[in-house]
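Hey everyone, long-time lurker, first post.

I ran two proteins through the pipeline my lab uses and got sequence/structure pairs for each. Pasting them in order. The first:
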Amino acid sequence: MKYYIIGDTHFGHRELEEYCDRPENFESLIIKNWVKTISKDDLLIHLGDVCLGDNDYWHRIMNSLPCRSKILCLGNHDSKSMHWYLNHGWNFVCNNFTMSYMNKDIIFSHLPLLYTNYDLNIHAHCHTKKRELFDKKQYLFTLEHEYKPVLLDDIILSIVSKKY
């Protein structure tokens, strides 16, 4: 099983084409890249802001995509209850969670957590075309870079080698 990161998919949020310079087909790009990247045995960590508009429609689409398990760190646009998300295909729903991986204590969240005792905070929320490491602890995952899930190993290795 591999661990993949994605966030700020904002399915149904057409304004992001203007606000974040996303292409008109950003939703189909995300879905196509998901299918090409993630297998049925993998785990997906979504860093929040799944969709706007018809939540049921986009959650049905996401449930049809390959993935063993899906974790959702609620974002500022994820306005349903945790119970609702659990009933719509998510295996675990939280505001943030921690795990030790590749000798790093990591906290995953939607918003950046500026003061933590963890080695690394992997977060989303800030839309930019560049993934960045701030203060050697804050890693911004941005979907606008390639519109695809990214292997957690690749994120950690890029940080360790400082090729972010």
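...and the second, right after it:
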Amino acid sequence: MHVVSGIHALLLSSLVTAYRPCPLLGSVFQPPTSLCDTQTFQDALRDLTTALDHATEAGNSSYGPIPAESSAFSIGIFDANTPGDLFSYQSSSSHLRQGTEGVQEVSQDSVYRVGSLSKLITTYLFLIEVGPKYWREPITDFVSELADAARTCSSAENAVDCVDWSEVTLGALASHMAGIPRDCRFMLALQLSPTRY
């Protein structure tokens, strides 16, 4: 009976000591350097370029369609410790090439409107750093100008031009459920000083 228990204990201890998780990046395990010099990385970049070329030419990828007439994009991979790009790829749509104003050909220096992408990154960072505890709090608790706007422009009296900022939460802003009009900068100026307009 004791021999069986001893064997179980020995097996259990060998299993426990055999498992060693990968260390986190830091003083023990430094981040990789000179990635662009490795053959594996160069092969991966070549495969990525081939896959992107095929997807844009075919108008389709394993992740969904890429309509050539309306899809223009630029991809860049860089390392904060290495000057220059590790990878750069651009694709211009046929509509863009036929345009008479603005950019006709996408380059690595092209400027894009980021739209709500910045909101997504901000939301994720907020959730990582703070968590969801303020998610249902009104924005007026954090931005005094919006608290002023809520007092000077009543949405009950003018639902078209006034936003009831005291009812807008951080979660509603992040999820596009706040009901704020597209030209909010003008609307906010109207709310802060309604006599100017």
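Reply from user beta_strand_b:
Welcome! Quick read of the second one: The first helix runs from residue 2 to 18. Residues 35-112 form one domain.
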